[in-house]
Amino acid sequence: MKNILSNSNQPEKRMKRILKKHSGRDSSGHVSVRHQGGRQKRYYRDIDFKRDKRNIEGVVQSIEYDPNRNANIALILYKDKEKKYIIHPQDLKIGDTVVAGDSVDIKNGNALPLKNIPIGIQIHNLELHPNQGGKIIRGAGSTAVVIAKEEKYSHIKLPSGETRRFHGDCYATIGMVGNIEHKDRILRKAGTSRHMGIRPTVRGTAQNPRSHPHGGGEGRVGEGMHPKTPWGKSARGTRTRSRNKWSNKLIIVSRHK
């Protein structure tokens, strides 16, 4: 994948800032997310998930690595001389043009509302609500497909297999997210995980009973008849989604079917 990346090692200075390290701790200093800490210093790149520069063409200046996501990012120079980063779509090359708007061409990297995207087109960086900015389908190699239209809604088949309604005014970007090879990456050594901020995970059965419900016992003892999470909740396949969740009515086909 390195051969398509720009030779520039430094991101745009005005679009980066130091990403503060919290090591999984909340405002009280307690560990709220386990197995985090010791990460290499990073800069956060400001990504344009909204694609709110409408009907202004931009040219791809470079394709860069982003340490905060598994997809690459593309630097876009617009005609009004403003620069922005977007998620890099597959097959988008340096020198290509992209544009966002209500009636732009169905072309890789362009962004437009779902109501104007034909059935069968692959999309990514999809908004959950209009004007909110892309929230889902942003990972390397991920894509969704428009499969139907219904009044003000579009039916989208998501990467998980779920089919769901989205409002037709929600913006999405045409194409598949690039860097598909990321899933084949081999870390090779423990130190790579530590540089990424991932600390070791210890099996519950290897801990003492005060640290985990599976802990304790003489010799090697399994999880027992009722596996639990570290906080005592049922594990191994128990459904936790609320029956009254607001978005249940938007789901046409569950990912579990």
Automatic annotation (TrEMBL):
Pfam families membership: Ribosomal_L2_C, Ribosomal_L2_N
Large ribosomal subunit protein uL2 RNA-binding domain segment(s): 24-100
GO cellular component, one term: large ribosomal subunit
Biased composition (Basic residues): 236-246
Compositional bias of kind Basic and acidic residues: 215-226
The Large ribosomal subunit protein uL2 C-terminal domain, residue ranges: 106-234
PANTHER family for the chain: LARGE RIBOSOMAL SUBUNIT PROTEIN UL2M, RIBOSOMAL PROTEIN L2
Protein name (record): Large ribosomal subunit protein uL2
Lineage of the organism: Bacteria, Candidatus Roizmaniibacteriota
